[in-house]
Write a structure and sequence with these properties.
CATH architecture: Alpha-Beta Barrel
CATH topology: TIM Barrel
Structural class: alpha/beta
Helix content: 40-55%
Radius of gyration: 17 Å
Number of strands: 8
Strand order of the largest sheet: 1-2-3-4-5-6-7-8
Shape: globular
Bound molecules: phosphoenolpyruvate
CATH superfamily: Aldolase class I
Length: about 260
């Protein structure tokens, strides 16, 4: 059974920022600012050490918890790694996979990202698979080729029968943490390409229900125009998600004609 209703997903990626105490205070303030929004999902991906202590405040506020990374094995001699079984135990519904900082700072390959995605799906944790081109790739007209390659490897051999099981985040590398945002038109073109690829890879109904987030310097002053695009179903926010009032404004984007 598939549905094409896509509940907007507004996601905060805290990266390696905020203490546990600051995280608890953030959640309380965000909850106070937002109440219990019924028409959009609010997600926070804090550092690993924060997952367990933030679990209850997050659940009480009605927010979804995500890990920022994972290992594909269940257990073993992988010093410094955290498995999806461990992540699921902390109450996470989601895991970010293949963030550009993992790809470019830590050298994660497309193949590794594919293994992580497959492992997340098999353990019932929803992968948020990040893809995106570098500036030189965009300038060389290779954006779609890069996205196709990353999607093919990242979703290798997977079966996705219901759209709720997968989220894609289009994050052009040149827009992450740079203050430079894709124009709404550039983002929409990339999202439409991704949805078309998903329709071929799975089927049209599943592709129509999969949420595709945009990430890359999303701020209170550009979120409305981005969210007005028909294939943008949410945002993955780094820098502007570190203050509750700024992230609250992003979550409360103005619909400008697009109803969730
Ligand atoms: C991110 O970390 O995924 C991100 C998009 O960061 P920023 O919003 O700071 O560009």
């Amino acid at each position: 059974m598939t549905t094409s209703v896509r509940i907007p997903l507004m996601a905060a990626n805290w990266k390696m920022h905020l203490s546990i105490a600051e995280g608890v205070a953030f959640i309380a303030k965000l909850h106070e600012l937002l109440g219990n929004p019924q028409d959009r999902e609010v997600l926070i991906a804090p550092p690993f050490t924060h997952l367990w202590p933030l679990r209850e405040p997050m659940a009480a506020a009605g927010f979804s918890l995500a890990a920022q990374n994972c290992h594909w094995e269940t257990q073993g001699a992988f010093t410094g790694e955290v498995s999806l079984t461990m992540i699921a135990e902390t109450g996470c519904r989601y895991v970010i996979v293949g963030h550009s900082e993992r790809r470019h700072i830590f050298g994660e390959s497309d193949a590794w990202i594919g293994r992580k995605t497959a492992a997340a799906l098999s353990r019932g944790v929803v992968p948020i698979v990040c893809i995106g081109e570098k500036i030189e790739e965009r300038e060389a007209g290779l954006t779609e080729e890069v996205l196709r390659r990353q999607l093919t490897a990242g979703l290798e051999g997977l079966r996705v029968d219901t759209p709720e099981k997968l989220v894609i985040a289009y994050e052009p590398v040149w827009a992450i943490g740079t203050g430079r945002t894709a124009t709404p038109g550039q983002a929409q073109d990339a999202h439409a390409f991704v949805r078309g690829w998903l329709a071929q890879r799975f089927d049209k109904a599943v592709a129509n229900g999969i949420r595709i987030l945009y990430g890359g310097s999303v701020k209170p002053d550009n979120v409305d125009d981005l969210m007005a695009q028909p294939d943008i179903d949410g945002a993955l926010v780094g820098g502007a998600s570190l203050q509750a009032d700024s992230f609250a404004r992003i979550v409360q984007y103005k619909k400008s004609g697009k109803s969730p």
